[in-house]
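Take a minute with the sequence and C-alpha cells given here and flag any C-alpha cell that looks odd. Thanks in advance.
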Amino acid sequence: MKIRRSLLLLYCLAANAAVGDSVLLRPDAVFDGQEMHSGWAVLVTDDKIAAAGPARDVSPPESTRVIDLPGQTVMPGMIEGHSHMFLHPYNETSWNDQVINESVALRTVRATAHARKTLDAGFTTARDLGTEGAGYADVGLKQGIHSGIISGPRLLVAGPAIVATGSYGPKFSTDVDVPQGAQEASGVEEVTRVTREQIGKGVDIVKVYGDYRWGKDEPSRPTFSQEELNAIVQTARSAGRPTVAHATTPEGMRRAITAGVETIEHGDDGTAEIFKLMKQKGVALCPTVAADDAISRYRGWKRGSDPEPPRLTQKRVSMKAAREAGVTFAMGGDVGVFAHGENAVEMELLVNEYGFTPIEVLRQATSGNSAVFHLADRGGIRAGLLADLLAVEGDPTQDISAVRQVRLVMKGGSIVRQP
C-alpha cells in the first residue's frame, strides 16, 4: 500500500510539473512572422504561445521562468521548404555513390544527425522532399522525432519521389539494373496505384518529377504526360495530400501547374508566360538557389573571380521573371546537396544575389511557408500558435545573416538549444 501511495504521489507531482509550466522571453525585439516589434515579450505556457505583445501588457503567472535576451530578436521557428535528410553534400560523396554504395542503415544514421543540425540552426519544421533511394526511411525518421527518440524538426515527408520509368538514375550500362533514387511508374493506372501505395505507407506529400534528363548530357525534358500528372494530383488530393513537382523546363512546369500541384521546385528555365500561369493558379515557387550555387562551386567555380556559370545566369533571369509576375515564393534551399545546418545559405543568397529584402525572406521562411504548406498552427508569434521559437543575436530584418547567430531554440515549449 505504501508503495502504491508513493507511486501515486510521484505521478501527481510529475503531472503538476508538466501542466501549466510557463516561460517568459524578454528580448530586445520580436519578429512575429510579418513585422518587427521593439520592446515585446513572449509568454509560453506548455507547448503554446500564451501571449505576445508589449512587455508591459504581458502578465506572467508567479511561477514563470523568465529568460532575458538582451540584444536579441525572438522570431518564429523557421520552416525549411526543400530538404533531403538522407543526402549529404555531393563534394563529399556523389549522388550516385550515395544511392548505390551507402546502406539505408548508414543513411538513416546520417539523417538523424542531419535532423539535429537542422533544429539547432533554428528550423523547427522541414519538408523532406525525397529519400533518394532510401525508400520510406523518412517516415520512420519522422516517427522517431515525434516520439522523442531523437531530436529534430517537425517533418513533412515525401518518401520516394515518383518518376517516369527510365527517366531517373543511377544509370550505368544497359545490361545493368541498379536500385533507383525514386519510384518509377508509367501510365495513368500505374501512377494512380503508386500514388495510393505511397499514401498508404505514410507520406505527407506526393512529389513527382515533371521533367528530367533521359540520358547523360541531355537537357531536361518533360517526362509524364498531362493525363498522368492529372491522375497523380487528383489521387493525392482526394487523400488530403498536396502534390509538389520537380520541374525546370517551361513545358514540364506548365503540365505540373495545369495538373494542380501546389509548389514548383527549382523552376530554372521558367518564362514570363509560365510564371503568369503560376500566379493565376496560385502555385508557389521554391527556387532552391543554394543548390545551384553549391553545384557550381563543386565544379570549380569561384564567386568573385570566375565568370558566372550559365546555370546561375539563367537562374537570375527566371527569378526576375517570377518576381515580376508576382509569384509566391517558398523558402527552401535543397539542403542535402549542401550541408545540413547551413540552411541559412538560401536566405543569404536570396538577399545578396537575387534582390530580396531581409524581411521578405524572413516572411518566406516563417509565415509564408506556413501559409503555402497549410501549417496554420505555426510560422508566427501570437497566442494559440505552437511555441516553436528561436532567438538570434541582432536584427535579422536589417542583416539576414543574423539568423545564423542562434542563441535559443524552442520547440513545442521545450528549450532544445541554449548555448
Remarks:
- Residues 78-372 form a domain with the TIM Barrel fold (CATH 3.20.20.140).
- Residues 2-18 form the longest helix (17 residues).
- Confidence is low (pLDDT under 50) at residues 1-19.
